[in-house]
Structure formats: C-alpha cells, structure tokens
Amino acid sequence: VVDMLCGLQEDVLSEQVDVLVEFLLHPDADVCKASSEVLASVKAGALDIHGDLLLEALDYQRTEDAKIAIIVAMKQLSACELARILPQLVAKIEDLSTPDGVLAATMETIESLESSLLARQAPILTKILYERSSELVMLPALSLLSDLPSNFLTTEVATGIAMKLGDGNVDVQLRALRALKRCPTESLAAGILASLLACVHSGQDERVQARAIELFGQVPISQLEPAHVAA
Q1: Does residue 128 surpass a pLDDT of 90?
Q2: Counting beta carbons within 10 angstroms of the beta carbon of residue 163, is it exposed (0 to 12), middle (13 to 18) or buried (19 or more)?
Q3: pTM of the full predicted structure?
C-alpha cells in the first residue's frame, strides 16, 4: 500500500505526512523503508513538525537500509529544522559503530546547511578521515571540509586531509586536493608539502599530479625546498 503512494504528486503526499511518519516506527524494516522513500518526495518543510520522530525512528530501526532511507527523507526538512537536530546527527557521525552507509547518508544530508553551521564540525570530520577508510565515507567528508570557511581549516585539519592523498583511489585524492586548495597558506605545513610531492612523483593520474602542482603555487617561496622546485 505504501509503495502505491510513490507515484502521487508531492502536494498530495504532503497531506498524508502525519499518517506516513507513524510507519517509521513499524517493527518491519521494509515497511519503514518504503514509508521513508515516500516521505522523501513530500514538499520541503512538510516534515518539520516530525523532526524528533525521525530521530526516534533512526534509533529504533536496526537495519542499515531503513536508517539510510530515514536520513534521506530528512533532506525534506527545512534548513532551520535540520539545524535544530544537527547535534543529534553529529552524534551519529561521531559514533564509531555507525555503519559506513548511514554515516555517508548523514553527511550528504547535512551538506545543504550553511557552512557557518558546519564549521564547528571540522575536528569531527577530520577524525573521520583517520578512523574510516571507505570511499563511501571519504568523499562526503572531504566535500564537507572543502565547503567550510577557510579559517576553520587549520594545520591539524589540513594534515588529516593530506593523509588521504596516500589513498589509492583517484576520486578520493582529487577531493582531498580540492579541500587542501581551500586551506590557508599557513596551514600547508612541511608534512603536507611532502604528501603533495609524493603526488607529483607518483606518475599515476595526471589530474592528481596537475592539482598537486597547482597547490605548490599557493605555498610561499620561503617554504619551498630544492626538492619541491626540482619536482
């Protein structure tokens, strides 16, 4: 029955929000997932009065698919309501037991918030870079970091980002280089320059090499060593 609702227009679905959200606490995860997928099609802001129920359902459901579907539905919350529940979502991001898929979906959902609201999460996002290795998690984490105000991209944050340059995945490397380009010059310490140098010498993807060389152009001459110039 829930699946049959998927084809309806968003204004019609929005009138049924109060009924649909109750299914998020259904003991059958498939029912919750189906209901969440329908709620992901309602009008923006239609779910705002149910923000706490969405969080409750996120804790109640046990399967990864159901949790991801709930988080995707959260994209229909207004920016104001999403900002209100941000602390609870950040707690999910910090929790090491959170599955990679749920973590990635959470980061993609909060990506729509203003960068000033997310700026305080820079240390947490950097911690993820050290603790997780999945591309599924790395890409949204690096995207969030690259969108933060540059004054929050400290040397510690830049070092965590530069660590991902050693990742064999080209998409992760390119995303890391994009984030490093946003870092203030003073955050590009010697260890980061060594990682950039490794990218230049790697002989792998030309896009990675080109962006690494571009970043050297941001570094003050006083910080460049003969090995950097030779590269």
Answers
A1: yes
A2: middle
A3: 0.90
